[in-house]
Amino acid sequence: MSKIKIKDLKDIDWAEFWNKKMDETGNRGKDWNKAAEKYSKLAEKDNYTEKLIENMILDKNDTLLDIGCGEGSVTIPLSKRVKYITATDLTEKMISILNSRINDENITNIKTIKEDINNITLDKYGHYDIVLGSRVINGINDIENVILNLNEIANKYVFLTVFGVNNWKIERDFYKYINKEYHDRPEYTVLLNILSNLGIYANVKNLDVGPIRSYEDITDAINNGKWNCQNFTRKEKEKLKEYLEKILDINPKTGKLENKHDKPDWILIWWKVEK
């Protein structure tokens, strides 16, 4: 069988490849309205917010558009670093929790909007100094169009965070354990190539988020790990319990269950906008 020869990386339709990978992955079944209540507590377990903000280029007079803001674990701290934020999210419960936090803390420089990222355009939102897409890009299908819109809106910088290659390691290993095909989300290198084809040459930084995840027991690991158990058969659920019992070790200092590979892995991709 003859091999396809590629003369130039620009000949590859990276956006089409991204969309194909997203179609293969399918809907992971996450109900963000149900997940919203515990999301803040989960977000407090690592230093993602601190690592992200310390690597952003910000000015106290900046306006910022925060897409996929969730319940505000990043939005609230950012409001102390910039002049004004418009925070958008598609999940009604996330917006409701953020609004409650804004009211409780008497924050006056955040406006919230329930919005689909695909509908965020310059015509609708106007210009902002900074555009932030925190932990949201991995769920986008029409990636090229979204990137073009965000780049057009930003006056100064666009900051995006996406999964690193190790974020789903134990999930991939579990699928191998049960001899089931696993469909990865597209890696961040694909996004870099999409940007390059658009004439955007981005910077890359591993945020080195920690610590490793820990669980009270196996049930806690199943319920609060990154498992979509509704997509598993009864036998696969039994295998998951068996698998976790094999790979999780008791930390003698905390008494909790851990695995050194079960750690958040986030990549920051950012660029200065050229008008």
Protein described:
The protein is an alpha/beta fold and 275 residues long. Helix 1 (14-25) packs antiparallel against helix 9, helix 2 crosses helix 5 (92-104) and helix 10 crosses helix 11. The protein has helices at residues 14-25, 32-43, 48-54, 75-78, 92-104, 122-125, 143-153, 169-177, 188-197, 218-224, 234-247, and strands at 63-67, 84-89, 110-114, 128-133, 154-163, 203-206, 214-215, 249-250, 257-258, 266-272. A seven-stranded mixed sheet has the order 3-2-1-4-5-10-6. The chain has a three-stranded antiparallel sheet with strand order 7-9-8. Helix content is 37%, strand content 18%.
Question: Which descriptors would you attach to this protein?
Answer:
3-stranded antiparallel β-sheet, 7-stranded mixed β-sheet, 275 residues, alpha/beta
By secondary-structure content and strand pairing, the structural class works out as alpha/beta
Following the backbone from N to C, one meets helices and strands in this order, namely HHHEHEHEHEHEHHEEHHEEE
Largest sheet: 7 strands, mixed
Mean pLDDT across residues: 90
What characteristic shape results from the CA principal axes?
globular
Count of separate DSSP helical elements: 11
Could you tell me the strand content as a percent range?
15-25%
Q: Percent range for helical residues?
A: 25-40%
Give the strand order, joined by hyphens, for the main sheet.
3-2-1-4-5-10-6
N-to-C CA distance = 46 Å
- What is the C-alpha radius of gyration, as a whole number of Å? 20 Å
Number of distinct beta strands: 10
Instruction: Please mark out the parts with pLDDT under 50 across 5 or more consecutive residues, or reply none.
Output: none
